[in-house]
Amino acid sequence: MRLRRMSSAAVIVAVGLGMLTTTARAVEPAAGPAAGPAAEPAAGAAAEPAAGAASAGGACAPAASGVPLPVTQDHGVLQAQVFDRQVPDPSVYAGRVGFVWGALKAAQPAGVLASSYVTAFRNAPARQYTPEWFKANHPDWIEYTADRTTPAWEFNNQVYTPIDISNPEVRQWFTTNLIDPALAAGFTTIAVDNIGVRNDFKVSGHYDKDGNWVQQFGTDPKDPAWVADVLDWLRYLRDYAHAHGASVAFNLTFNGSLHDEFQDTSPEYMAALDQMIDISDIWLNEQGFTVHRVENVVDGEWQLMFDLLRRHRCKPSIILNKLPTDYWYQATPEQRQWVVANYLLYRESPAMLESTGRKDYAMFNEIPELSADLGKAVTPPVHHGPTLWTRLYQQGLTVVNPTSATPAQQTLPPGTWTDLHGIPYAGTITVPANTGLVLNHG
After folding, report:
1. Is residue 328 within 8 Å of 365, Cβ to Cβ?
2. pLDDT for 281-333, tens place per residue?
């Protein structure tokens, strides 16, 4: 579905709509630095301050890292493909997909950047190096939990071995056996998965070559020693890739919207996450505004996610919205529009989006809402009253009410506005809680 272009009369209406932002808070932080080694501002950057008069704002300077990055666009929805093992014909990407995370092949259609997959703290995907191989050849590389017997398995996966990323020998082995083959195969981006900002899999230490126990980390998942080791490892991977003309794409997923033992919204967690995102060239966040939950991400969790995305708005990013259904088409149209409405609210040109169900992961999903195009942004995100957010585009408006219970009202300029499913809106409209609208002026 491609939205209609705005008429000249509608442009005048849009100007009127823009005037409404003078009574609201236009939110726009100072633009962040370009991606690359010099792109590491102090951790824990402040949330976006109020700006003056609404303006297009948020323009991102070209990245200065000199390594391959996705080709960005300043309108519409730039999609990403997270894994492609169920995409038999990549020609479907043409004009829609800018990046493939974890691609099977380096060769892609024109304009599509592919990345080769590794994990941050294990030997995946090199399955031939079994836990028994590490025990026989490099027992001092294996990381254990506090009982000093159980390897610190990630996700209880006992196929790939947790290894000591601070060990120079491990680093050399990792680059030689996991990264160099990908570079030789033609990949110019390395996708690094499962980067733990916290020590949630309870790595405690390892044995040295003489069999003596080496204690590395305490029981606090935010042990500063863990954070320091991870930061140093990510810089090492980035610098190695850059030295070989390649970029790095880090899976740094925000856990603030999870409702389990991994949830964290603490200042120290956010500061560490900010630093790690800054080190990356491309950032994957697997928790968008849905997180497998029918009710979507709302209230304070939504605000934390939104602030995080806007702080790093000039970083090439993939935000993956996992729908709560087996297949994308089983999700309600309202929820699919919610995903796009939020994307158009936070996005700048480097931002990419993917949405998927539980069983169509790694497929190319023909989600019609993702073809929405309202032209270029005219204003930054604007906060209206206690709950509502809007953003004006050349050819329409995105509206998000990210609360769990409170409806909000928005007065539209004259004329009829139509959402992505053909539903008309006019005058003063009520936007229910937990609702996003992408409105085109007809």
Report:
1. yes
2. 999 999 899 976 666 899 999 999 999 999 999 999 999 999 989 999 999 99
Is the full-model pTM beyond 0.90? no
- What count of other Cβ atoms lies within 10 Å of the Cβ of residue 212? 9
Average pLDDT over residues 414-429: 94
User: Could you give the 3-state DSSP secondary structure of residue 268?
Assistant: helix
DSSP letters, 207-257, are E-TTS-EEE---S-TT-HHHHHHHHHHHHHHHHHHHHTT-EEEEE----TT
The DSSP 8-state label assigned to residue 151 in this structure reads: B
Provide the residue count of the chain. Answer: 442
Neighbours of 408 (CB within 10 A): 21
Identity (one letter) of the amino acid at 163?
Answer: I
Q: Is the dihedral of CA 351, 72, 42, 240 positive or negative?
A: positive
- DSSP 8-state symbol, 128: T
Give me the residue label for tokens 């899999």: 201
Work out the mean pLDDT of the chain and round it to a whole number.
88
Q: Are 337 and 419 in contact (CB under 8 A)?
A: yes
Q: How confident is the model at residue 44 (pLDDT cuts 50, 70, 90)?
A: very low
pLDDT digits (tens, 9 = 90+) for 13-22: 444 454 444 3
Structure tokens at 80: 């990403």
Alpha-carbon distance 86 to 383, whole Å? 40
Query: In terms of Cα–Cα distance, which of 240, 218, 243 is closest to 168?
Result: 240
